[in-house]
Amino acid sequence: MLWRRVTAVYAALVGLFALGVCRLYLAAGNTAYAARAAGQSAVTIEMPARRGNFYDCGGQLLTGLSERWQALCLPGEDSYVRLYDAASPEGQAELYRRRNAASPFLLTVERKAAGLYAWPTARRYCAAPLCQHLIGYLDGEGRGAAGLEAALDGVLAGSGGHDTVTCAVTGRGTLVEGTEPAYTAAPFDGAGVQLTISRAVQRAAEGVAAETMTSGCILVLDVETAEVRASVSLPGYDPEKVADSLDAAGSPLVDRTLAAYAAGSVFKPVVAAAALEAGLDGLWVDCPGYTEVDGQVFRCASGTAHGQVDLAAALEKSCNGYFIRLGQVVGAERLLAAARALGFGQRTAVAGALHGAAGALPKEDTLAQAGQLANFSFGQGELLVTPLQVAGMMNAIAAGGVWRAPSFVLGTVDEASGAVLETAARPAARRAVSEQTAARLQALLAGVVSGEGATGRQAAPVHGSAAGKSGTAQTGQFTPDGQEKMNLWFAGFCPADDPQYTVVVMQDGQTAPAYSSAAIFGQVCEALWLLEQ
Question: Which has the least CB within 10 A, 34, 327, 378, 437?
Fold first, then answer.
């Protein structure tokens, strides 16, 4: 009996030993068992959020034009050294901060480093940012923070899924021997957005602005549709380093195309339109260089005496005295009606919650004061307008009297297939002035550029023709040495006899710019002509 008990105990011990040997064998041949034995864990790292791109009117990319890499940085000197040369200064600083990290992390690099794990991602913005104020920028979480990025964030981001990289790591944070990182693509339900912008026209306008302006904006519209082909605002900013521009001089984060400014004489075509519609365009005025209204003296530019002027000469010479008298003849009610019909005093929708400012039209009882009516008649006083509103006004004249709200968005697209998902509703069109009035205004504004001694002669392009109106608006702001800062405008269309493009140039807060806004307008028109060849 004792022998049997001893035998049974011995057999049990042998069985337990065999079981232990088997478990050790399985652990040696099985990664999961080996991982536990080595203190292994699984680390999952999120890639930057996927996001739909912006496209121009021809389907060319406006964002995501170039490639970057998300490189896997593993604890240890070797990974650090290899990534350092491929990283940007900001990336190198991050490498230094995380040099003692105990687990893997991803680092954005401009090129793939040999011998390391890395996955390509699109660089959101160009090194030379394209259409930066309109498109806007992202916050630190990759969500839209300004411009169309914010207005269309839900469309672009979808549900906001992230692709991931999962690593099996040891207790020291290194990859478990024999394993590789696993990349997992998340479902993406965002979409691309197609804009009315033309990449070629945008780059051309940006090129002209960079060479000629320090502060201001340029807008280019297609006359037939009022679709915005270019939207430029200066000074610019780096959308990947927005913090650097928060307190910078010149307010570089402001999209000047959508902000409101004093108008000056660029508003005179509205007064002319009201007069033509009322049949009150036969006025002649003898201009001595100034006009007195209720004891207040209003001067023409530099006090120049223009002599006998009619509507054509008054536009060509930008005679304030004539337009003050014309405003008195036409009356406040007709002037305000014409301004509203041409889009002033109302916000312009861009997309979602993004709008251009409404600006300001004086109230009719304000214009009952003779001095206020005089100011309004040549674009001063309480009047505030946006460059986008001025573009809409001038485009209506170029389009035969039909006003259309300038538009920026064509629709959404499936980026995988290129199929159109949704087409944006086209802004409603309305007749602002008669065809006859528009045709007369086109001819009058052509004279501003081509007339002998006209104020807009610098707006003439080398090739083709153009029409338009200048404006120099007082701002009531002064430099330390007492010089008043001016808003300098030129708005018009080209060619003069068959308008295809409406162009607005505005330089804000200027005292002595390197180029007049008329000259910049001429360069933009010349660039448009070259693009058509």
Answer: 34
The 10s digit of each residue's pLDDT in 264-301 is 999 999 999 999 999 999 999 999 999 999 989 999 88
Kindly tell me the burial class for residue 455, based on how many C-beta atoms sit within 10 Å of its own C-beta (0-12, 13-18, 19 or more): buried
Residue 38 burial (CB count, 10 A): 13
Strands (E), 30-187: 41-46, 54-55, 66-73, 105-109, 118-123, 164-169, 182-184
d(C-alpha 402, C-alpha 504), whole Å: 18
CB 401 within 8 A of CB 270: no
Q: Which residue has the higher pLDDT, 416 or 58?
A: 58
pTM listed for this prediction: 0.89
Burial of 135 (0-12, 13-18, 19+ CB in 10 A): buried
Both tokens of residue 263? 């108008």
Residue with tokens 């007709």: 334
Tracing tokens 């920026």 back to the chain, one arrives at 408
Please count the residues of the chain.
Answer: 533
Q: Compute the C-alpha angle 509/349/352, nearest 5°.
A: 115
pLDDT of residue 28: 47
pLDDT for res 110: 84
For the chain, give percent helix, strand, coil, nearest 5.
Answer: 35, 25, 40
